[in-house]
Amino acid sequence: MSNPIKVALYSRVSTTHGQDPELQLGELRDYAASRGWRIVQEYTDLGVSGSKNSRPALNQLMSDAGRRKFDGVLVWKLDRFGRSLRHLVNALAEFEALGIAFISIRDNLDLTTPAGRLMFQVIGAMAEFERSLIQERVKAGLRNARAKGKRLGRRIALRCAKIPCGATPENNQEALRA
After folding, report:
1. Which domains, from first to last, does the chain contain?
2. In the annotation, is 14 catalytic?
């Protein structure tokens, strides 16, 4: 008999008040058992918002993925895993590059199947679209600010070569205009 696929489970609850990760973990364990997979580790972030840049258990999962400690990652729902669409796409691309399967059981997303890979491409296209929209809004905002006479960018650095060292706006206006 061949070795069973090794999987990691990831769960997250935003608050410890009335939320219990066992709801997620129970379903994930049952799913893994039904497929004959061996759970090598469970990663759980308790009381951590999904928008946080640093989540200890997620950080450890990504680190262990890089060490190839498992063949697949099971999550209950995508929103339990990804901070944003960009984070989700980057993490899924990293898993794909490492040959690690990703399955979200409630979203019916299994990147080991052709349909799951297609869905990943759609998610990636949406992330690219979102980035393009953000770029357009930033450029429009900059154009609008310039049109209103707003000076953009950092202040010009004052150099001692042009201005006598120790000069201040109060005692050397001419040197500052040069």
Report:
1. 6-112 (3.40.50.1390)
2. yes
